[in-house]
Structures are given as structure tokens and as C-alpha cells.
Amino acid sequence: MKKLFAGALLVYSLASLAVSIIGHRGAAGYAPENTLTSFAKAIECNVDMIEFDVWKCASGELVVFHDAKLNALTNGYGYITEKRLDELQKLSVLGCERIPTLLEVLDFVNQRVKVYIEIKDPAIAQDIVSVIEHYVNVKHWQYDDFLVASFDHIQLRNIKAANSLIAVAALFYGIPIDVAALAVAIDARVVCLSIDFINQSIVDAIHNCGMLVYVYTVNDHDDSMRVLSYGIDGIITDYP
Fold first, then answer.
1. Is the peptide bond before 81 cis (omega within 30 degrees of 0)?
2. What sign for the dihedral angle of Cα 13, 238, 217, 126?
3. How far is CA 39 from the centre of its chain?
4. Which DSSP string do the residues of the chain spell out, in sequence order?
């Protein structure tokens, strides 16, 4: 099924639409999610962008991990925000990988693809801005190499207030009233919608406001064909 999905998606996108392919947590369908191995696999698969999740740990570093708690994916337990980096570095992710820092991930990617940073921690907007500004001003990345996303739209507002050059993506689950207006209010470049809650009228409304539409998490052939038919701009998938 994976080969069928990937092949059909590639043929469809090349033949009809310029659709960005975003590797979800790297290439989570092929390698342990949010690890350097997963990011390497996504780059090998020629993604346009890799998506990953960021928290701040107890010692102040930004780390890449999805869940609030360590229990399900590592041999540790408790909340990631309550652990120091040295404690986190002793853990293994799904028995074979480790939790990387945001700086490690960015240095590993090294501008080979764009990065889609999803903010999980409720108060790290300024930290994310500082990191992006450092990579632009010191390491010669471009602002266009970054997209910052969150379900917490207050954090996105804070990012735009701190640096209007940083692109943000408003994440939604469900179908709130007037999605497009909510996204416009935070000056979003992209609106990210769940595969479970998307239709042609929502996509058209967002496009009419000048924003792009990305869809998560698309791992099925039929789903990929359906959302591509709406004219969406990006697909977030575990199987890039």
C-alpha cells in the first residue's frame, strides 16, 4: 500500500499540480518519528519540507519530540518539560534512537529542505524566533526556509509580533466557524487542516484570502486523490 500511495501521489502532483510534500515527523512511517534517522529518510525521499514538534526541556534547551509525556515512545517516563537535557539524552526512542535538540535538527538538515516547526510547548514563541533569527543572520538561512505552526494561535500572534518576516501556519482540528478569517487575523501564510475535516468550500475560502492549504496526515491513496482534487497546496504524510 505504501508504494502505491507514494507512486500515485507523485504521478498526480507532477502531472497536474505543484503540491508540496511534507514529511510528517520526518518519515514516521519508515523510521522512529522525530529522530535524525527519520529526517534523513524524509530527505532521501525528496520531500519539500520536514515537519517536527518542539518543546523546551527543564534545562532550557529546545528539543524535538511529539508527546507531552515520554512514556509511550521512550524507555523513560514523565513530562518532557520536567526533564533536563542530560536526562533526555540518556533515553532511547522506540528502543534505537535518541531525542535530538532543535539545533541538532537544523544543523543536520542544513538547508537541504525547508523545515516546518510545530510548537507544542505553551510558551516558547520567543525562543523559536531567536533560533530562526540566529540561523538567518549567522548561518545564512533564509526566512523562507522556515514555517512555524501551532494549534495555539496566541503563540503564532506572538511570533508575528516579534518578527513579521517569519511565516506561520494556523493549525485546525475540526471545522471552526470562518477558518479563513481566523487565519487572516494572525497573518498566516498557510492553513493546515485535518484530513477528517476538509471540503472544497473551505479550501476555496482559504485560497480566496490568499493563503495556502496543507492537509494532515494523509497516508491513504484514496484520501490523497480526494484532497488533491480540491486544489490543496501541500500534503503532510508519514510516507513521503
1. no
2. negative
3. 12
4. -HHHHHHHHHHHHHHH---EEEEETTTTTTS-TTSHHHHHHHHHTT-SEEEEEEEE-TTS-EEE-SSSBSTTTBS--SBGGGS-HHHHTT--BTTTB-PPBHHHHHHHHTTSSEEEEEE-STT-HHHHHHHHHHHHHTS---GGGEEEEES-HHHHHHHHHH-TTS-EEEE-SS--TTHHHHHHHTT-SEEEEETTS--HHHHHHHHHTT-EEEEE---SHHHHHHHHHTT-SEEEES--
Residue 176 to residue 33: CA distance in whole angstroms = 29
Query: Comparing C-alpha atoms, which of 222, 226, 231, 236 is closest to residue 5?
Result: 222
pLDDT tens profile 93-131? 999 999 999 999 999 999 999 999 999 999 999 999 999
How far apart CA 154 and CA 220 sit, in angstroms, is: 32
Which CATH class name applies to 2-53+116-237? Answer: alpha beta
Cβ neighbour number for residue 157 with a 10 Å cutoff: 15
In the chain, where the domains are located: 2-53+116-237
Could you report the per-residue pLDDT of 28-86, keeping only the tens digit for each? 999 999 999 999 999 999 999 999 999 999 999 999 999 999 999 999 999 999 999 99
Q: Report yes or no on whether pTM surpasses 0.90.
A: yes
> Are 238 and 24 contacting, i.e. CB atoms less than 8 angstroms apart?
yes
